[in-house]
């Protein structure tokens, strides 16, 4: 998965197009460079509220890896990448 300004732009455009025109969806990005660059054109119906730097506990995505390590991936050996992906899915 590629994470950069272009990918972020595409993601936000897709979200914006998915919701009704009179709906606003608040996006809570962290302060990664590709979230804060002036090169991004933030859709009008996606107001941004950036979470403070160094507050990983406020970023829900940060909870995914510890959960997977504790419940699905920890203390296991996988034959290959496909096997690990299959286990997670």
Question: What does this 3D model show about the protein?
Answer:
By secondary structure, the protein is mainly alpha-helical. It is built from four helices and no strands. The model has no long low-confidence stretch (mean pLDDT 87).
Task: Report the C-alpha radius of gyration, rounded.
Answer: 17 Å
Quickly count the helices. 4
Number of strands: 0
> What is the approximate shape?
elongated
Along the chain, the helix and strand elements come as: HHHH
Distance between the termini: 16 Å
Name the helicity range.
40-55%
Biggest sheet layout:
none
What is the overall pLDDT average?
87
Task: State the low-pLDDT regions, or none.
Answer: none
Beta content: under 5%
Alpha-beta classification: mainly alpha
SSE layout and pairings?
Blueprint: H1 5-18, H2 33-36, H3 64-73, H4 81-88
Task: Provide a compact summary of the structure.
With 89 residues, this protein is mainly alpha-helical. 40% of the residues lie in helices and 0% in strands. The chain is elongated, with a radius of gyration of 17 Å.
Keywords for this entry:
89 residues, mainly alpha, single chain, 4 helices
């Amino acid at each position: 998965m590629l994470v950069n300004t272009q990918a972020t732009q595409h993601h936000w455009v897709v979200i914006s197009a998915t919701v009704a025109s009179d709906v606003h969806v608040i996006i809570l990005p962290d302060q990664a460079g590709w979230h804060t660059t002036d090169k991004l054109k933030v859709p009008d119906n996606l107001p941004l509220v950036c979470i403070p730097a160094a507050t990983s506990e406020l970023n829900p995505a940060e909870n995914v890896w510890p959960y997977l390590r504790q419940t699905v991936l920890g203390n296991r050996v996988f034959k290959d990448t496909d096997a690990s992906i299959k286990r997670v899915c």
